[in-house]
Design goal:
heterodimer, A: alpha+beta, Immunoglobulin-like, 6 domains, six-stranded mixed beta sheet, 28 helices, 50% helix, 15% strand, B: alpha+beta, two-stranded antiparallel ribbon, rod-shaped, transmembrane (chain B)
Amino acid sequence: MRIKLKIKHLTWMLAVFLIILPACMIFLLPQAELWIAKQKIENGEPDANVKLLEVLDKKITKQQRYDAVQTYMVDPADSSLYDINISPSGSGYTSTDGMYSKFSWDEKLPYLQDYIENGPLHSEYPYAVKNLAFYYQQHGEPGISEEIYAQGLKRLEQNGDPFLLQELQLFSLEASVQLHDSLGAENLLKELKEYADPSNMDLQIQIAKAEVEMQIQQGQIELAASVVGQILTDIEKSDGDITLTDSVLYEKLQALNNRLEYALLTDEPLKKVTGRVSYVDGTPIPGAGVFLRDTAFANYSIFSNEENHTETNENGEFTFDQVLPGNYEVTAGLSMEMVDGYMIPFEAGEILSIDGSKDEVYDITLEPVINLVQPVNETVIQEDHFDLEWEPVKDASYYLLEFTIEKEGASYSVKLDNRITSHKTTIELEDLYALSTNFILNEQDTKENFFEPASLLGFSNPEGTYSWGVSAYDSQGQLISSSGGYRLSEENINNIPMIRLQNRKLTNADELLLDGKLKEALQEYKANVKKDDSDLHSLHMITAMIGLESDGTWENRTELALPYYIMLAEQTENAAYVWEILDYYLYQRDWDNYNHWFQQYTNWTNNGLDGYAASSHASALLFQGKIEQARTFFQNAAADSDWNDANLENWFVLELLDRKSMEEVADLAMQYPSQYAASFYTDWSIILHNMNEESKNVDNYQEELQHVLSLYIAGDVPALNTWIESTDLEALKVFIQQLKEMNF
Amino acid sequence: MTEKKQIKKKLESELHSIHFTKQENVLQKLKEQEQRSKWHRFWNKEISIPVIPVSTIFITGVAVFTFIGLNGKAPVDDELLFIEFGGSTYLQQQFEREIENEN
C-alpha cells in the first residue's frame, strides 16, 4: 500500500511537527519524567529521589507537585521519618511506596514549606505541618515551629475539614507542651475542650493526656497521677460504655500511670537523658532520630506521636529534658546511608532503667560489621567437621557463633554458648545436629499454616540452606560488634555466609517427615531407636516430634520426651539436653533427680551459668529451702552481663522470707527491673512499694506475708488459690498472683 | 521610404541621449519566472510513500525510545526491596546477583 503526497504537504507536516516538538519538550517531557521518577521510586532504586527532585521543579501541574510531596515527603508516623528504626528488640524499615530511602530534611524543606502555604488541605496536611514544625523544633527554632502551626491552623480554620483542624490542634498542643510553652498550650487546650466532640472518647482522652503531660512538665506529678488514675478508673467502671477505637491509647495511659507511680517514689523525679550517636571512630551522626520508649511498648512499632522523640544535632548529641522514671528502650532512626556497612551493638532486650535518682547518659555507637572469611558463598560441607574464620575484632575477648536455618518466611537461629577466644574455630557437625531448633508441642501445632516439617530436622537436613554469623564481646561480656548488620551497597556485601551441610544422607524416616507423614516418621524413628539405641539422630528427632502424642500440654510433652533426653544426655554429655531434663524435674519438684542432673550439667557445660540459668537454679534452691545457696546464685545471675534475661522475682521472695523490709526489697526490684516476661511486663518494684504502703495499716501483715510465701515456696497451688480468693490485702494479692502466673 | 528614413533619423537623433540599460533585469526576470515555475513544479510534485515500511520504522523507533526511557522494569513489592540473610540486611536484587555470580 502506498499513499501519494505533494511535497508541499509533506513540508507543512514537518514544519508543524517541528513547532510542536519544543512544546512537547516543555510540557510533555516533564510528564514523562515524572512518571519515570515515580516508577524508579517504586522499584526502590537508590537514585530515584534525585530524579524526582529534578522533575518537581519543571513544568508539571501544581496538583502533581503537591501529590508527589504528599506521597513521598509527608510522613504520617514519627517512625517513617527514618529509613530504618533499630532497637534492642529488633529493627524495622519504613519504606514508603517502595522508596529506597527517604528525602533528607534539606531536600524536602522547601517543598513542605510550599505545600503548607499553598497545598491542598487533604488528610496529609496536618502531618505535613507537624513534620516541618518538628524540624524547626529540633533545630533550635521554636518560634518558626509555632509560626508553622499557626499558619496551618489558620488555613484549616478558614477552609478545612473540622476533623483535620482538630487533629492539627492536638499536634500543636503536644508540641507546645514539649516546647514548655504553657501559655500557648493552655489556649489550645481551652479551644480544643470547647469544640471537641464529647462522644469522641479517643480525642477526649488524647486531650486529657496532653493536659497531664503539661502538668508533668510543670512538676505537678501528684495531680497528674490522680488525673490518669481517675481516667483509668472511669474507663474500667464504665463497663464498656467508654470505648476507645485506638486500643493502644488505653495501654499508653496504663504505662503512664505506672511511670507516675514510680515518679511519686522520688522527690525530683524528672531526669535528663543525654547521649551521642556516632561511629566507632568518633564521627558524629547528625540528624539521627532517637526515641525513648516505655518497655511496655517495645514490641509495638513506633507510634505516630511518640512522647519522647528527638533528633541529634550536628555533634550527634541528643537530649531529653524531663523524663519520668521507668524502664525505657532506646530506638535509633537512621538513614540507609548512615547505617550501610554498620550495626548497632544493642544487646537483645537491653533497657535504659531510669530510677529518678540521677540524670542518665546513653550513647549509641555504630560499629562496622565483622566480615566473614570462610565458609561462605554456598560452600558445601561434606566432612564431619569444618573450619570457620572471620576477621578479628580489636579488643574482642571472645566470640560467639550463631547458626541459622534459612527458610523464606521463617528462619530459626541458635546461638552456640561456647566462647571462642580466637578468630578461627572448628565445628563438629554432630554438635550442630544436636541443636534444638523447633519441636512439636502438640498435634495442633502441625496444622498451622506456618508449620514446616523440614524445620524439625534442624541442621541435619542435607537439602537445607544454612547461614552462620559471629558476635564479638569484650572482657566485660559487652557486645562489641557482629557479622549481622546492614550490607546495602556493593562494597559492603562482602562474603555471603551461606553454607550447605551435606555430611549425612536423609534416612527413610527423614523422607517421611519431609513428605509431611509425621506419625509414620515418628514410628520409624522409634523403630530405629529400638534397633539401635545409640542412633542419636533418631533419638533427637523423637524429642522434636513426641509432642504429636501429647495431650497438648507442655508438661505432658516434656514428660514423654524425658526418657529420650536422658538417653541423649548420657551418650553425648551435651549440657543442652541436660537443661531440658532439669526443666522437667524443677517443674515436678523432684529434687533428688534435679540435684543429680544439675551436677551433670555443671560437669558437662563449657561455660558458667548465664543469667537465666543461674536464676532458674537459684529458684530451685529456694524451693528446696536452701536460702543461702539460692541467694548466691541470684546474686550471680544479677551480676551476669545478660542479667535482664534472668527471672529475679524469686529473689525478692527470698529476701522477704528472710525478713528484709519491703522497702529494701522494693529498692532491689527497682535496681533489677523485670524484662517482658512472656507478653506482659511486671513492675515488681511498684507492687512491692504498694505492699509496703498496705502493710502500714495492717497489724499482722508480716505473719500473713510469711504464711502465703511459705505456701508459694512449697508449691501448694490449691492453698494459694484459696488464700487469693479469701484475702482482702489487695497489693499482696497482686504480688502472689503474679508469682503464681510466672512460676506455676 | 525617405519619409520613413527621415522619421527614423529624427527618432534616433531624439533618442540619441537615451540608452537601454535594463537588459540584465529583463533576463533576470525571465530566469526568475523559469525558476518559479520550477519551484512550483517541485512544490506540487507528488511523491508516493510506501505505508508499511515507513510506519514500521516509525513505530519501532518510538518503541525503542520508550523502552530505553523506562528500562522496561516492572514495579517491585515494598517488602521485596530487602532480604535478611545470616543476620544481615541486603538489597534483594544485589543479594540475588551476588549469589548468581558465586555460582
